[in-house]
Amino acid sequence: MHIIWLKNELLHPLDKGGRIRTYEMLRRLRDHHRVTYIALDDHTSTEEQRTRASEYCDELVLVPWRDAPLAGARRLAAIAANVFSPLPFAVSPYRSKAMTEAIIARCGERAGVDRADVVVCDFLIPALNVPDELPCPVVLFQHNVEAMIWERRTKVASNPVMKAYMAEQWRRMRRLERTQCLRFDHVVAVSPEDAAVFREQYGVHDVSSVPTGVDTDFFRPSGTVAQSRHNIVFTGSMDWMPNEDGMAWFVDEILPTIRRDVPDATLTIVGRRPSAKVQALAEGRPYVTVTGTVPDVRPFLEEAAVVVVPLRIGGGTRIKIYEAMGMERAVVSTTIGAEGLDVRNGEQILLADDPSRFADSVVSLLRDPARAAAVGQAAATQVRTHFGWASVAEQFAERCLAAAASASRRPIPAMSMSS
Q1: pLDDT digits (tens, 9 = 90+) for 43-79
Q2: Structural domain boundaries enclosing 27
Q3: Which domain CATH number covers 85?
């Protein structure tokens, strides 16, 4: 099977859950299928990124996009212009006629014997660039229910202006997401819960799910890093708003209660590009460390007494939880943080949504290392038995093969792409 894979970026560095999920799946898919990877290029990609693309695709197609990254004054101008657009800002800057032409070129008759069997649109962002008519089926791979993320952002926003802005983005995202999901031959979600949302709220009939996976060989204790008695660890991209919100909530509302009961408890926040708000969490708190980008999260996970995932916003599934489980560490998470994962509360993970209960769960594990170890071992057994990436990729390939064999496009009027 020849798969054309559409994404808005190259995958390295592997510092975000979405990149990791795509990378690990594509590596396994290439064992049995041909992969052409089409991505937008804003002229910032490095030689290393382009070279390493050979790890996950047979052919790389970089589509010239814009002359410079959307940052600083350019980003502010784009946000202002988006006020008059029907599209959410998270998607609108990624429209590309050149990408549409690249897709057609590799799917149309001129592609000859190498024509694609299926196109996979990875995330909602590239969907605007997929034409309504293609000679092969198209699968939309949804790592999240995007509108749900904006809904949750709206609910936790305290600034009235920001709340109104989030609410408008939520309305736009919900409208766009429903329209795009209905355009494609099949939608693949990352959990049965997300698939149910697409089915029940958007009316999508051709939808299924594949689980999140983990590299069970890579995420395994080395035995060379001593476990801390009372260090709490969080890992994640620290320039992503749900992670930023979750850690601010944890430090302000939960950590003081933990330290009241365990005075020497410390917190290490591990992840790329911490925002100013995240960095400020360590100011005046010598027991809080913000590492920034690290080459390998495994030593931090191995050193952790407890791993926390205190998310109040988000969608899809959290790869960071399965990574911690693979490292045999006990995890305390909110229900949203562990949403869509096949874990049992009290056995392979502890779940708590109220600040006091979350703190109590962490304290109970800090005070009882034997219980923490038992939870960690049960968690590791769960992911090693059921959630290796090879199995996940095989399930995804089955969805693509089914779409290639039987799906027929159902074009509907596309949402206007005008600003």
Answers
A1: 888 999 999 999 999 999 999 887 556 677 777 777 7
A2: 2-213+390-406
A3: 3.40.50.2000
Same domain, 202 and 289: no
Could you tell me the CA-to-CA distances from 73 to 43, 68, 79 in Å, in that order? 18, 12, 10
Answer whether residue 258 is part of any domain: yes
CA distance 314 to 340: 11
- C-beta neighbour count of 200 within 10 angstroms: 9
- pTM of this prediction? 0.83
Q: Give residue 416's pLDDT band: very low, low, confident or very high (50, 70, 90).
A: very low
Q: What is the tens place of the pLDDT at every residue in 309-324? A: 999 987 666 889 999 9
At 369, is the secondary structure helix, strand, or coil? helix
Distance between CA atoms of 238 and 184, rounded to whole angstroms? Answer: 32
- Are 174 and 288 found together in one domain? no
Residue-wise pLDDT for 81-95, tens only, equals 788 788 998 898 899
398 bridge partner residues: none
How far is the C-alpha of 314 from the C-alpha of 303, rounded, in Å? 26
